[in-house]
Automatic annotation (TrEMBL):
Top-level lineage group: Bacteria
Keywords: Oxidoreductase
Keyword Oxidoreductase annotated: yes
Keyword Oxidoreductase: yes
Annotated protein name in UniProt: Methylenetetrahydrofolate reductase
Entry-linked InterPro entries: FAD-linked_oxidoreductase-like
Amino acid sequence: MALLNFRKREAAAPRGASAEVEAFLQGYSIEVMPRTAEKVEDFRALLPEGTRVYIAHIDGTPIEDMVATAKRLSSDGFQVMPHFPARIIRDKAMLGDWIARYQGEADVRQALVLAGGVSEPHGDFDSSMQLLETGLFGDAGFTRLHVAGHPEGNRDIDPDGGMANVTDALRWKQRFRDSSDAQMALATQFAFDADPIIAWADSLREAGIDIPVHIGIAGPAKLQTLIKFAIACGVGPSLKVLQKRAMDVSKLLLPYEPTEVIAKLAAHKAAHPDFNIENVHFFPLGGIKTNANWAIENGGNAARPADITAEKAKA
């Protein structure tokens, strides 16, 4: 697919962003849903050329809407990464059909493979590992496969609140990565405190897991909105950051911005270049435009050159 007719987006000057933050934000990714994408007139006016855009597949969303969104974003020159939630995919035939549609209509070669948010599987699959084991992604020539990471654990996987089962699953994914031609990364749930994120990332390395991390960050939003999503998504100890903010009357009505958590992670990355967080992945809970503008204002004005080069080479 040729990347043609890009409209130049006017980059706003970073509002005092440090060089560390600016470097940390380069190559960030962002998530959309078909119904939210419909409200965006022109993504090229908001996002850097070549940005990776995940398309969240919520249970009940028709695959036709997912593919149409993927086609639009791909045509605009973005790297498209749709979700493949195992628990809403009935069987191998449905998985193969989705892959074929994305490839045939939107030239997709990337996927986020995850269990999904529903409690009861709709069919044969319960986990991302089962989807990967089908071999269909490899057969279709997918060049990049991301899987889920959980810096603060996941009680669906570890009901006791620990990390044992999550870590075992990551070791399986590491072995799969080592035997696959696809590039892999961990795309994580969002968190609000840098310290638990850093401790988790370091613990992966200690456990022998060196899959790069694309850390989930909630974009600017009203405090009430973030608390609602955080509770629904099972965010752990870092939820205290929001609860503490809610107790401060002077901040209660102000929108939350991820400035502090980004700054601390960026400073840690600058001081420890081998830190395994490779990219920032934004959850635009306060709106795509709001999140994109915040990223621009804080120095996130460009996709990494290697990302654009790889996408153009694919074309």
